[in-house]
């Protein structure tokens, strides 16, 4: 091989190696420090890092496969099925590129046929406001068992957006990006536990200056070009999961009826569901009965 060809060959190898190294560094940055990658895109008014971050997230966490779901306890299987029927995002959410599914779900099995709740629901629709609240009625039910489903990744019946399943790691990254605080603070595990203890709506740092609040709003707008993250109603925190958000799912003992206490934006209520003769779950009614 001539010296000239040898030099060209060496140059080509270095170029390919350099490109692959750069690509690997980008992938590593997205995986290990998503907040920095998002900040880079935000500062350069470039949406491509955001799209790549979200697409990597989407590909990394998928819905629980049918064969694995079939091996779960019956209560969990029914909870997955009920949530699938319950989860109907709003039209603005469905116009986004991605929806975000909550990372856990509280499920309560009760010794009750929900006749009192269903009667209240029917009377409420007929205009009778002199009724016990659903939360009062739910609190009076005899509980058989309670469970919290972690790593909750149900299949959902929506058309359009891709699905993201919220995880602790991604919560870290989103908080770090939005709150504009030192990275090391967000990697303190008890802090994230505290955040989730406050029902997804609290923020560990409340901005004291207008410019800090404006910076957060601009960063939120950057994320919301692809998602719909709702800011907390009282000026602190964010709702990362796409609404409706299920606070608690109640099943009767024979698993033919369900009630889901939910949040939708800055209000919420209860969804009433039943299982058909074919085994499918359908929503009978949704009632919004509280506002912040």
Task: Please give a structural write-up.
With 292 residues, the chain is of the alpha+beta class. It has two domains: 1-32; 34-291, no CATH class. It is built from twelve helices and ten strands. It has helices at 3-32, 34-43, 48-60, 66-70, 74-86, 91-94, 115-125, 134-139, 168-179, 183-186, 189-197, 210-223, and strands at 98-101, 105-110, 143-149, 162-165, 230-231, 238-239, 245-252, 257-264, 267-275, 281-291. A six-stranded mixed β-sheet has the order 3-2-7-8-9-10. A two-stranded parallel sheet has the order 1-4. It has a two-stranded antiparallel ribbon with strand order 5-6. Strand 9 (267-275) and strand 10 form a beta hairpin. Helix 2 (34-43) packs antiparallel against helix 3 (48-60). The longest helix is centred in the N-terminal third of the chain and has 30 residues, at 3-32.
């Amino acid at each position: 091989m001539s010296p000239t060809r040898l030099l060209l060959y060496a140059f080509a190898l270095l170029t390919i190696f350099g490109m692959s190294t750069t690509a690997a560094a980008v992938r590593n940055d997205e995986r290990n420090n998503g907040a920095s990658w998002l900040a880079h895109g935000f500062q350069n008014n470039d949406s491509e890092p955001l799209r790549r971050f979200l697409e990597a997230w989407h590909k990394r966490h998928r819905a629980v496969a049918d064969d694995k779901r079939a091996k779960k306890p019956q209560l969990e299987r029914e909870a997955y099925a009920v949530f699938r029927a319950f989860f109907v995002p709003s039209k603005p959410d469905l116009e986004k590129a991605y929806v975000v599914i909550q990372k856990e779900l509280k499920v309560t099995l009760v010794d009750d046929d929900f006749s009192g709740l269903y009667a209240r629901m029917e009377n409420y629709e007929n205009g009778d406001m002199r009724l016990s609240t659903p939360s009062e009625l739910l609190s009076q039910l005899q509980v058989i068992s309670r469970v919290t489903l972690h790593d909750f990744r149900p299949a959902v019946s929506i058309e359009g957006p891709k699905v993201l399943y919220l995880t602790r790691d991604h919560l870290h990254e989103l908080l770090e990006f939005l709150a504009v605080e030192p990275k090391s603070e967000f990697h303190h595990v008890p802090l994230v536990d505290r955040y989730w203890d406050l029902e997804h709506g609290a923020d560990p740092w409340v901005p004291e200056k207008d410019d800090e609040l404006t910076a957060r709003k601009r960063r939120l707008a950057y994320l919301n070009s692809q998602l719909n993250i709702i800011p907390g109603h009282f000026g602190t925190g964010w709702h990362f999961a796409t609404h409706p958000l299920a606070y608690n799912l109640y099943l009767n003992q024979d698993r033919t009826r369900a009630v889901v206490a939910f949040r939708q934006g800055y209000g919420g209520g209860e969804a009433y569901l039943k299982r058909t003769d074919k085994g499918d779950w359908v929503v009978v009614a949704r009632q919004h009965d509280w506002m912040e």
